[in-house]
């Protein structure tokens, strides 16, 4: 694949794609389960038969090591297999258990029907799982789908465009390439659902545009996901797992550990553990060719991170080097204050600030003063501390004693809360996101005698019959 950008899709081409997919959805092509299963199989074949090309493209964009690239694609394949295995169960209509005897013959049923023609706007940092992952849910739900990958990852966008056109039904699934003008034009069109992954600023723009058409939106917006080191934490293992999480994609992952709250008296011991594992992860330095250390996505983001390090009042412990190839070494900064430059926004880079705290009360207060994060990572064996975090903080996910492993549990919903997004996807929850629950009843003609009291003229006798039901005893507490 060439390193040049894939040709940007023109506005007239976008309109044609939108109309083609909408017409195809109207005639019901994407609805049969056999069709959905075939398309999911094709998406799986796309990955399996083009693994080297997919790995090479994301390496070209981000310098991502093969192991990280194949791990991302393994997550995608797991989701495809899971959807294929469970498609019939997910799509099966559900009979509703009704309480009142006179409604039991009404055939109350909830049907799982596709939302329609949906739009997925994906990011650059994990282009396959965050663009093609939602596509799995759209296919499983019976939707037609347009995927808009990020223009900041041109090689990955180009390989996805080529392969989706080659492997999937051209009349139901398409890729649109472009930057802000092309995305704005997409959002001017009417969609039946929009799923966006990216920054909070752009997420608000997407949400406002979708509101013009009353289009439902799923937003995954990331945020400053904290690590909490409790007094009883295993510092060595916590350091190893935090540093591993921070190192993924050079820190450019929405669920990367953003910063660490560590007991003040244990900060130095935690740093010693971090340095031990730092030397084990990158024995010859992160810039050595054997380290396979990735790049920051582009020069502006590289400059942003360098500027944050220049402005911090914290103490640099390790790292902080940078080069002209958009790389920054993994960086540890201690004694960071809650109002430091490193705490202004989501870092989205390989910088790990350590914030010393006196106790769990201070930690909870500081977390609650921030915007709601996508995830909180808590290292503890204390059920009491876990319950305090569950009951007194908010986040999309709470993970105990590890980082980023929640992404491997595709049976569980993934999503944020308030500032970090809303709506859910992953596994069955992707299917649910792109599915409308269509209620259905069939009222028997023979039920007419039971319904006689609802008709005009309204009489006192009819009123008293209904009022008696309203006044009936409540269930006991």
Question: Your description of this structure?
Answer:
By secondary structure, the protein is of the alpha/beta class. Helix content is 40%, strand content 15%. It has 15 helices and 16 strands. It has helices spanning 11-26, 33-48, 51-62, 66-91, 132-141, 154-167, 180-188, 200-211, 235-247, 267-281, 299-311, 360-369, 383-392, 428-433, 460-470; strands spanning 94-95, 109-114, 117-121, 144-148, 173-175, 193-197, 217-220, 226-229, 259-263, 315-318, 331-334, 351-357, 375-379, 397-400, 421-422, 435-440. α3 (51-62) packs antiparallel against α6 (154-167) and α9 (235-247) crosses α10. The termini are far apart. The model has no long low-confidence stretch (mean pLDDT 95).
Whole-angstrom Rg: 26 Å
When the domains are counted, the total is 2
Topology-level CATH name of the largest domain: Aldehyde Dehydrogenase, Chain A, domain 1
Helix tally equals 15
Q: Mind describing the biggest β-sheet?
A: 7 strands, mixed
CATH domain class name of the largest domain: Alpha Beta
Structural class of the helices, strands and pairings? alpha/beta
Number of strands: 16
Poorly predicted runs of 5 or more residues? none
What share of residues is helical? 40-55%
Strand order of the largest sheet: 10-11-12-9-8-13-14
Could you tell me how far the N terminus lies from the C terminus, measured between alpha carbons in angstroms?
Answer: 66 Å
**Do you know the CATH architecture of the largest domain?**
3-Layer(aba) Sandwich
From the spread of the alpha carbons, the general shape counts as globular
């Amino acid at each position: 694949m060439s390193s040049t950008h894939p040709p940007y899709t023109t506005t007239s081409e976008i309109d044609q794609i939108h109309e083609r997919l909408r017409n195809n959805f109207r005639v019901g092509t994407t609805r049969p389960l056999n069709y959905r299963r075939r398309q999911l199989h094709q998406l799986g074949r796309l990955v399996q038969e083009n693994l080297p090309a997919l790995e090479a493209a994301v390496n070209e964009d981000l310098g991502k090591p093969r192991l990280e690239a194949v791990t991302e694609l393994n997550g995608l394949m797991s989701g495809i297999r899971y959807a294929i295995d469970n498609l019939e169960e997910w799509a099966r209509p559900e009979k509703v258990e009704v309480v009142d005897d006179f409604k039991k013959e009404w055939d109350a049923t909830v049907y799982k029907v596709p939302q329609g023609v949906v739009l997925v706007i994906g990011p650059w940092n994990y282009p396959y799982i965050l663009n093609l992952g939602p596509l799995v849910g759209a296919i499983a739900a019976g939707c037609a789908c347009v995927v808009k990958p990020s223009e900041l990852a041109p090689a990955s966008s180009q390989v996805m465009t080529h392969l989706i056109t080659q492997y999937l039904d051209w009349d139901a699934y398409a890729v649109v390439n472009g930057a802000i003008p092309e995305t704005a034009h997409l959002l001017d069109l009417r969609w039946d659902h929009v799923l966006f992954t990216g920054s909070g600023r752009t997420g608000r723009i997407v949400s406002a545009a979708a509101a013009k058409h009353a289009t439902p939106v799923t937003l995954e917006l990331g945020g400053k996901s904290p690590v909490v080191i409790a007094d009883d934490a295993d510092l060595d293992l916590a350091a190893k797992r935090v540093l591993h999480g921070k190192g993924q994609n050079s820190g450019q992952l929405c669920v990367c550990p953003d910063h660490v709250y560590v007991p003040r008296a244990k900060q130095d011991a935690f740093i010693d553990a971090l340095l031990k594992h730092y030397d084990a992860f990158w024995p010859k330095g992160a810039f050595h060719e054997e380290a396979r250390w990735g790049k920051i996505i582009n020069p502006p983001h590289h400059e942003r991170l360098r500027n944050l390090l220049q402005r911090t009042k914290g103490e640099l412990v390790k790292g902080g080097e940078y080069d002209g190839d958009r790389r920054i070494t993994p960086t540890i900064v201690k004694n960071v204050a809650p109002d430091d430059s490193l705490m202004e926004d989501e870092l989205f880079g390989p910088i790990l600030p350590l914030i010393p705290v006196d106790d769990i009360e201070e930690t909870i207060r500081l977390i609650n003063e921030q915007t709601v994060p996508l995830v909180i990572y808590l290292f503890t064996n204390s059920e009491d501390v876990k319950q305090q975090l569950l009951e007194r903080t908010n986040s999309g996910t709470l993970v105990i004693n590890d980082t980023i492993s929640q992404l491997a549990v595709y049976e569980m919903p993934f999503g944020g809360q308030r500032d970090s997004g809303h709506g859910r996807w992953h596994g069955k929850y992707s299917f649910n996101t792109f599915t409308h629950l269509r209620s259905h009843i069939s009222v028997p003609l023979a039920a007419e005698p039971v319904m006689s009291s609802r008709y005009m003229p309204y009489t006192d006798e009819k009123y008293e019959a209904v009022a008696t039901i309203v006044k009936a005893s409540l269930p006991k507490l």
